[in-house]
Amino acid sequence: DMQDAVPPTEELASEQKQVQSEVAGLSGQPDGSRQARAKALTERKKEMDTKVADLQSQLEQIANEARRDGRAAARKLDEAAGTVTDKRIREKIRYTQNALQAGMGGQSDYMRSVGQIEDQLTAHLDTLKNRVADAQKAFGQGQKEDALSQAQDRMRDLNRGFESLGQRMRDRAEQNANNQQGQQGQRGQQGQQGQQGQQGQQG
Q1: What per-residue confidence (pLDDT) applies to 136?
Q2: Residue 102 above 80 pLDDT?
Q3: Are 101 and 44 in contact (CB under 8 A)?
Q4: How many angstroms separate the CA atoms of 182 and 180, rounded?
Q5: Quick one: pLDDT at residue 193?
Q6: Which residues, 6 or more positions from 110, have their beta carbon under 8 angstroms from its beta carbon?
Q7: By the 8 A CB rule, do 58 and 135 touch?
């Protein structure tokens, strides 16, 4: 089922919200704690970058497969996959990852700029989630339309079958009527011939 093949994005969007919150809290941490947290966040960023790359690849692949019979859904999937590139989601994830890796988590200027990027990432991943959800709805709508179309085809086939059966029954009734007329005509001719023969013998 193509609809089930569309990968879920809620988890990715939710994870970004958690990361955003943790990055925002780095500035108030002591150095040792901040560095440990920054390192953990760096690993999460790395994993998120991989997840986004895999997601984009899956969306593009499913969109290509869907083009044959689900144009609306394929277009929605293209839009979702395009969000990753258009919004530069992976670049922004890698930028914040590299910044955290460099141990800059305690600088207020950095925190402001990274905080803005984290806000953007949260908004972008929400957009991605919504577009993927739209694509899934389009698949569902397409399947409903296909089911309706198939039902209509079946009804047309049934109607054609009934019409054909009715025509055959009418043809058979007409043929029977013709046969009966033919038999009656034959009997009438035989009766006339018999009467004429009898009259001839009497004369």
Answers
A1: 83
A2: no
A3: no
A4: 5
A5: 63
A6: 99, 104
A7: no
**The pLDDT of residue 103 is above 70:** no
Q: Is the pLDDT of residue 178 over 70?
A: yes
Burial of 75 (0-12, 13-18, 19+ CB in 10 A): middle
How many Cα atoms sit within 13 Å of 69 on the Cβ side?
Answer: 12
State both tokens at 171. 């043809």
Alpha-carbon span 130 to 133, nearest angstrom: 5
User: Alpha helix (H) ranges present in the chain?
Assistant: 2-5, 10-24, 31-66, 71-86, 89-101, 108-202
How far from 55 is each of 67, 101, 136, 150, CA to CA, in Å? Answer: 18, 24, 15, 33
- What pLDDT sits at residue 147? 41
Selected residue with higher pLDDT from 174 and 107: 174
Q: 8 or 48: whose pLDDT is higher?
A: 48
Scored b (16 or more CB within 10 A) or e, 129-168 reads bebbbbbbebbeebbeeeeeeeeeeeeeeeeeeeeeeeee
Do the Cβ atoms of 52 and 7 come closer than 8 Å? no
> Which pairs count as long-range contacts for 53-56, CB under 8 Å and 24+ apart, including other chains?
53/90, 55/7, 55/9, 55/12, 55/84, 55/128, 56/81, 56/84, 56/85
- To 5 degrees, how large is the angle CA 158–CA 160–CA 165? 95
How many Å is the Cα radius of gyration of the chain? 39
